[in-house]
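I had to read the description of the data format several times before I understood it. In essence, backbone conformation is discretised, so a fold becomes a row of integers matching the chain in length. I therefore recommend that a typical entry be quoted early in the introduction. For illustration, here is how one protein appears when written out as sequence plus structure tokens.

***
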Amino acid sequence: MASASLLKSSPSTLQSEWVKGQTLLRQPSSSVLRFNHPTTIRSSYSDELIKTAKTVASPGRGILAMDESNATCGKRLASIGLENTEANRQAYRTLLVSAPGLGQYISGAILFEETLYQSTVDGRKIVDVLIEQNIVPGIKVDKGLVPLVGSNNESWCQGLDGLASRTAAYYQQGARFAKWRTVVSIPDGPSALAVKEAAWGLARYAAISQESGLVPIVEPEILLDGEHGIDRTFEVAQKVWAEVFFYLAENNVLFEGILLKPSMVTPGAECKERATPEKVASYTLSLLKRRIPPAVPGIMFLSGGQSEVEATLNLNAMNQSPNPWHVSFSYARALQNTCLKTWGGRPENVKAAQDTLLVRASANSLAQLGKYTGEGESDEAKKELFVKGYVY
């Protein structure tokens, strides 16, 4: 096993690893001065990117993440006794996108490639249904995680090969933003190699997406797995986001035309000391203020295995005072869990399931506005959704 743990290195190693930009600026090297940096705003889509990002980051609204791969969607369907067939996936996705009034609370929906080209059970294009609801269609563009050779049993995210042609095709199909998820594991280090690979991949993806007219969601998920406390999460998150924004800048990504999808700063899922929503909010906002430029229009948090209610309470706590960015949600399980259980694969339960989805979406809409109280929540909504070693 490689012993490449970044955050367990000496202070001198940390400085050389993380303070790249500052080091370059302090060295009056002629080789540095000869660099001909292009203008950050390069894309012919710049105005559209900014408009799309602002639309998704609109008050009282957030993102419905429904981009589970077919295999992961199959696991969700199996939990209610359904086979993983295209017809069943279509039925469930139709239920989600056609919930009446969903666009009041949801500004964007992340789709899997199959879904982007799919129609509802009654023959309407799913993209058209979303647009009619005033919901911006988005698309998952990464190709999943694979082992990172030379690391501490960590992963890297593949999908850059052919990305330019794929994002151009997705734009033509109606998508207007994209998502690329990579992960960082605290129990496994994280190693300098894994963090650098995650940051570089995100930056290249973001630049390519913007060239095709898609607003990139930048998502380096810091996994909940582990027994570590909240301070350790904060330490790792600072390093990860420093690296991510260094490489975003190096790749001339337009910050006004991106959205972020970070993990909240919480203790590890197996840590005995839990954190209140107020403490999670304090740590998370401190992290954001230290690392995220105010030019970024929206911070759309992932739930990462928190219960539906816990994710909503934490979001609400972060919106008790004004922030430099739109602080909102991009939830999958934390929006869908109770909805899926209510549906159970039975046509007669569709309306009840849609009503449940709207309850969760409305609750998170209130949390984005800082007005959620947590009253009247069901026991199902309070159940923890964390799965150790979860594969997306």
